[in-house]
Amino acid sequence: MSKMLQKAAAVSAAALMLISPFACTSYAEVIEDGTFTVGFDSEFPPYGYKDESGEYVGFDLDLAQEVCNRRGWTLVKQPIDWDSKDMELKTGAIDCIWNGFTIDGREDDYTWSVPYIDNSQVIVVKSDSGITDVSGLAGKVVAVQTDSSALAALTGEDATEENKALCASFSELQQVGDYNSAFLNLDTGAVDAICLDVGVAAYEVKARNGFEILSEPISSEKYGVGFLKGNTELRDAVQDTMLEMAADGTFGNIADKWGLSSNLCIGDALSDNAQPQQSGTDVFTVGFDSEFPPYGYKDESGEYVGFDLDLAQEVCNRRGWILVKQPIDWDSKDMELKTGAIDCIWNGFTIDGREDDYTWSIPYIDNSQVIVVKSDSGITDASGLAGKVVAVQTDSSALAALTGEDATEENKALCASFSELQQVGDYNSAFLNLETGAVDAICLDVGVASYEVNARKGFVILDAPISSEKYGVGFLKGNTVLRDEVQTTMLEMAADGTFNDIADKWGLTSSVCIDEEALTAADSETDAAEIGQKPEKSFAERLGYMTGAVAKGLLTSLAIFLLTLLFALPLGLLIAAGRMSRLKILSSLIKLYISVVRGTPLMLQLLVVFFGPYYLFGVRTSSGFRFTAVIIGFSLNYAAYFAEIYRSGIQAVPRGQYEAADILGYTKMQRFFKIVFPQMVKNILPSMTNEIITLVKDTSLAFAVSCTEMFTLAKQVAAAEATILPLFIAGVFYYVFNAVVAFLTGRAEHRLNYFR
User: Fold this and answer.
1) Shared domain check, 622 and 559
2) d(Cα 47, Cα 366) in Å, to the nearest integer?
3) 737 contacts 638 by C-beta, under 8 angstroms
């Protein structure tokens, strides 16, 4: 058997050599080669994540790409496991960490670029949680990302006494690997709140329904690009280019694209004569609800359009500003305004009842609240709503008209007659509920109602409005300077007729009230502009996209599976021989190896294979070594398990079979291959099937060294799409994969039945 094992060892060694070269590359050599590898968390929008096309995108990645464009480098976007970021950097697998990376508290751990973003940590809760401020978190379970600035703000050495006391009031502070997991935990009630960066919070709350940001941030911080400690040469090259981008306005333009212009602070590092045009009167960021036609919505071409957005664009044209259209989650509008993420709320925003909450422009639209029902409902007036379920948008003027402090007694009585007043996140959801019969009526603005009834079939507006109101532009309380600039321009537009021209375009002329001479009755109905709204993707379209995105990782998972079998099967046979060797030293060493492999997690073994060369021998490993490390780690792990299975199969062959082979004059090699091996295979096939099926599922552990396989892609798509569905799609793929494996091994067992 020794010659056979020598051959098996030779095959395994040769195969492993094909994929196991260590790459020893210095930072200088990387830059000389023109490659700049950025490490980032791929589930951290808007700084870095995977979009619908399967591309890694985000604010920080756009900045890195622009730096590379200017320096003639090739950008490598390397998603990493955040817990392993330091090892990735120290081994040279990445050149920097650029991903909303907090400087505060880590000043001495890295070589930093200048700060470029001011950020804050906020709390997100479910909308129906009843938690309105941080004091409501006492006794609750709060989630934070591992090694995040939120964790540092609550538990770090520099955490304020107030935050430490807040943290002590929690029943538990739970650490999670990524924010998608955090929101899934919050959605299911496993945690009560999440503490995270405001930029990420705003993105996630917008992408998901049923969450809100508490108004009070718990800390503020600055973001920078983190390089290996002492690597000032690369830091300076990148930083100089970032400052150039800030000086010529490119930095600000990229921030505008991602709705982060008001958070920029890189201008602090520039001289007075090189300030980038990024804020104040140069960029005007308007916050709006993107599902509120005709005031603001996404059209068929994918552009944000609407009456209010046209007004804002005209104001910007006249003042020489750049308009940033920033869709927001309506529940988070106050937080968006207070943190400076937007400059104003301009979106059919009702003044009535909110007079003291904002600094307002003059009213420019007279509006009324009306009731929409299905055409065949039999409801002809408000009295017919008794005992019915009525929907309103959360924090809307319709809700205020029915339940607010200033609601009329008549409206309060009307509301009391409903069997339920149901709050929804947006009007599209409201109309879907009405169409399916989940609600009986919707109360909303007449302009929106006219648009929706015109765009959809089978709905009517009841004649009598329940209230009237006025729309204005809302600014942060006290921000009269910006309000006056915008308001002056609006009055100029009204005086020269431009305001009415825009209102004509959207069918809102009769509701304009910015000019006293143009005032009309407050309850007059408008003729909705017949402008089509781009329909949202159907479930089938979303399912198709997500399935395709997840399937892209199937080839990587399949490659890991097949290569592991290719190397681990013969290597396991070699290890089994050593385990059964009469040479005590060899047998003991093999026993120790098997014990270590079976007694430690596969994830840890992958980390050791990938990062070990650097920490043990000072050898830097390139990013291209990731897949090689995965195959080596999996092969060494599964070879140990296969070895024990082989040993049990060999020992199960009766001793008489060996004696019969000796009598027949077989050599040891012939005896093994013709007598022992076939019976061993028959004996071990059920156990081997279980291990192979486990291998299929274990391929998901490859992301421990940032090798992107199918389940990792599923997590990234789930984060971008704000749904758990991609994880279920991945589960279906794994199930089918394992079903195929079980079928093939079952057929093999059937073929081997002739040994009985």
Assistant:
1) yes
2) 40
3) no
Tokens 């290996």 map to which residue? 228
Tokens of 406: 């200033």
**How many Å apart are CA 78 and CA 58, to the nearest integer?**
13
Interatomic CA distance for residues 241 and 269, integer angstroms: 13
Q: Determine the Cα angle at 627 with ends 622 and 630, to 5°.
A: 115
Residue-level pLDDT at 720: 61
Q: Are 662 and 668 in contact (CB under 8 A)?
A: no
CB atoms within 10 A of CB 269: 15
Whether residues 321 and 396 share a domain: the answer is no
Contact 414, 382 (CB under 8 A): yes
Q: Are residues 326 and 343 in the same domain?
A: yes
pLDDT at 511: 78
In this structure, the answer to whether residues 357 and 427 fall within a common structural domain is no
Residues 6+ apart with CB under 8 A from 410: none
d(CA 708, CA 730): 14
pTM of the model: 0.45
* Residue bearing tokens 């919070």: 201
The bridge status of strand 291-292 relative to strand 283-288 is unpaired
Tell me the residue range of the domain where 356 lies. 283-363+471-518
Determine the pLDDT at residue 67: 92
Element (H, E) at 334: helix 333-338
Q: Which of 93, 58, 66 is nearest to 78 (CA)?
A: 93
Edge-first strand order for the sheet with 43-44 is 43-44, 48-50, 56-57
* pLDDT < 50: residue spans in the chain: 1-27, 271-281, 516-535, 755
* DSSP assignments along 42-71, one per residue: TEETTTEEE-TTS-EE-HHHHHHHHHHHHH
Specify if 225 maps to a domain. Answer: no
pLDDT score of 749: 76
- Tokens describing residue 543: 């399912």
List, in order, residues 6 or more apart from 650 with CB less than 8 Å away.
576, 580, 676, 680
- Packed helices 725-751 and 677-698: angle between N→C axes, nearest 10 degrees: 180
Q: Which residues contact 613 (CB under 8 A, 6 or more apart)?
A: 22, 91, 619, 620, 621
**Whole-number percent of the chain with pLDDT over 70:** 86
- Which value, to the nearest 10 degrees, does the dihedral of the CA atoms of residues 656, 657, 659, 661 take? 160
The predicted structure's pLDDT at residue 106? 85
Q: Following DSSP, what letter does each residue of 162-229 receive, concatenated?
A: HHHHHHHHSSEEEEES-HHHHHHHHHHTS-SEEEEEHHHHHHHHHHSSSEEE-SS-SEEEEEEEEE-T
Over its C-alpha atoms, the chain yields an Rg (Å, rounded) of: 32
CA 372 – CA 462 distance, rounded (Å): 6
Shared-domain flag, residues 477 and 463? no
Dist CA 117 CA 261 (whole Å): 9
Closest-CA residue to 464 (of 396, 401, 375, 372): 372
